[in-house]
Amino acid sequence: MNPNEVENGQIDWTRREFLRGASFGTLMMLMGGVPLEAQQTNAPAGDAPTTYHTYGPPVSLGLVGCGAWGKEILQTLALLPNAPVVAICDTYPAALRKVKDAAPKAETFDDYKKLLASPKVEAVIVATPSHLHREVVEAALAAGKHVYCEAPLASTHEDALEIARAAKAAVKLNFQSGLQVRSDPQKHWLVKFIRGGAVGKTVMARSQWHKKTSWRRPAANPEREAALNWRLNSKTSGGLLGEIGIHQLDLMRWYLNGRPTSVAGFGGIVNYADGRDVADTLQTVLEFANGVNLSFDCTLASSFDSDYDMIYGTDSSVMMRGNKAWMFKENDAPLVGWEVYARKDLFYNETGIALVADASKQKAMLNKATAAEASFAESPLHYALVSFVKNSHLTATQVEDFMSSGGELADLPTFLAKEAGSRGPAAGYQEGFEATALALKANEAVIKGQKINLPKDLFQI
User: Would you list the DSSP string of 411-431?
Assistant: First the structure.
């Protein structure tokens, strides 16, 4: 992702930037962390899905929203063999010009309705600011287009609910929300690893995102500046939790395998008194029914310690940072499961010996860590877009086969559910709505500085 600020609601600094250096992975090794990778031949039970690297027939795409994140999407799509971008749209002419080189063959539009009217467009990616998603998504579904909607689904609960309802009703179409980690093979492997008992009993969890950046974008005139800085206005923004924290909150909720029952929040503007009314620093605590709490803190005022996610267990703890993960064993942990795996990992064999007396082994370990850190998997966005293109084609094909064989529309959802095993992993409207509803409630808790109970019907569509 472009390290500059991102216009369309995504984070403006990514984990990938931090991981380009080998220092952090090396540090984790020296601390006794065992690297966990889905690609290991000696991985514990629960292999990563095998559908990530398979490409189906091409699906012609249209992009609505050509800011910095829109350009990142186009550049990622350009690397896929089956994702031709035939149309792009933005209301700001300069934005279209800036991304044209990433989609040179695409027809340009200044009105999304014109893009949706094009018979060439089979599927639409919505990368506009969050508060503008609903209108575009509903129109795209009504036009018979498959839809990928960036996360959060919207900046209000009502809009997110209506998007989810429209997606649910459009049974013939593929809808995917932009929770990219739900398509990441490493994350799928880890969720099985953690739920399989590798950490013992989970006692608490923690996530953070720290990056010193104002979030403010300059513009040539006040009108354009207001449009660019919609994230700084509480009327159009879900705040740090809606626009950044949603991804980590969703990841950890997925790993903890439950819905929180309450959320408490605190925060404020501690560094950027520039007219914004959205907090630049905050802390939240989510309570789960089993007594486990998830804490999350986020700040635009400091970059120290970057971003990561932690699961703390009675036998071991797991740290996740970008596409890397490490396990830290408790001294009294039983010799089962994960330890068998760890003994087959070269890093584990040298940890605790190389650092005490054997400099040659220490050097070998550091070189090994450097090589591992230099080897990058594809980005979560890549995996998410691969799944979207593949699943859009499969949905269209499966619907056509079902209806042509005399199937009833009312039975179509059940049929498609049975065919789910052929699809690439992705977050649908339910996951997207639940993540959005949770992030917006957490943001509300921060604004009010209080604890808010989360009833079960909050997540119902």
Answer: GHHHHHHHTGGGSPP---HHH
Q: Are residues 305 and 202 in the same domain?
A: yes
**Total structural domains in the chain?**
2
pLDDT at position 377: 62
Q: Is 362's pLDDT higher than 50? A: no
pLDDT (tens digit per residue) in 177-196: 999 999 999 899 888 888 88
Domain housing 71:
61-182+380-429
Q: Which residues are 357's β-sheet partners?
A: none
Residues 6+ apart with CB under 8 A from 224: 92
The per-residue pLDDT for range 100-110, each reduced to its tens digit, is 999 999 999 99
Helix (H) or strand (E) holding 263: strand 260-268
Burial class (CB in 10 A: 0-12, 13-18, 19+), 52: buried
Say which CATH number the domain at 72 has. Answer: 3.40.50.720
Distance (Å, rounded) from C-alpha 226 to C-alpha 444?
A: 23
Report whether 382 contacts 181 (CB < 8 A): no
Do 359 and 393 lie in a common domain?
Answer: no
Other beta carbons within 10 Å of 93: 10
Helices (H) and strands (E) in the chain, counts: 17, 15
Helix or strand holding residue 347 (H, E): helix 346-350
Taking alpha carbons only, the member of 254, 237, 170 closest to residue 162 is: 170
Query: Does residue 44 sit in the same domain as residue 170?
Result: no
* Domain assignment of residue 221, yes or no: yes
Identify the sign of the CA torsion 277, 281, 286, 291: negative
Q: 309 with 421, same domain?
A: no
Q: What is the mean pLDDT of residues 278-284?
A: 98
